[in-house]
Amino acid sequence: MGVATLGKARAWVWIGSVGLAVAMASVVAVLLLLNTHAVSTGSINISPRDYKQAQARWAAQHIVVYEIDVRYSAAGGCGLGSDGMMCGTWTLHVDSDANTVVALAHDYGVANSEMHFLDATTRVVAGKEMDRLTVDGLFARIQTILDEGPFDVRGTLIDYDIWFDADTGYPTQIVAAGRQASDGSWSDMPAHLSSEVVVQQLRVITKR
Fold this sequence. Notes:
The chain has four helices and nine strands; from the N terminus they run αβαββββαβββαβ. With about 210 residues, it is of the alpha+beta class. The longest helix is centred in the first third of the chain and has 38 residues, at about 5-40. The termini are far apart.
C-alpha cells in the first residue's frame, strides 16, 4: 500500500472515530435530557390509549343502574376540602338514565362534625356531592389528570397509579402521591395533594 493510500485510510479511520464519538455524545445528551424530564415532572402509569380502551369496555357493558362501594381517603385530611368529598367508604346507588346518585350508607369513619352529608333521619343523601365517586366521575377525574400533565400542582410533583377492571373497564383505583421537594425542603403540599380512591365492589342492577 502506498504512503498516500495509507494516509487516506488513516484519515478515514480518524473521521470515522470522530463521527462515532459525536454520535455517542448525542446519545448521552438525549439520555440525560430524558432523565432530567423524568425527574422534573410527575408521572402516570397509564396512557391516553389505556384510558380510551377502558372507557370503551365500560360503555360496551350498557350498565344503566348500579351500586358501588367506594372508599376515599386523603393524607391531608378530609371534609369538603379541595376535592369536595368526604373520607370513608360509601355505598352509592347510581342511575345513569335518571342522572341521580344516592348515598345509601357511609362507614362514619370521620368526625361527627362532617356527617352533615347524610340526612339526620334517613342517613341517606342525594345530590351532586357524590358524583365524583361514580364510574363516570372517576373517568372524568382521570381524563382531567391526563389533560393536565406533566402532573404537578403549584410546583409540587404528583405521581399517579391508576387501575381499571380487566373485564368491565371501570376505574378500580386512583392513587395520587405528592412528592417532597428534591432539595429536601419541607412542605405540606405533598400531603394535601395525596389521595386514594378504591372501588371495592360494583353491583350491576340494570342493563339496557
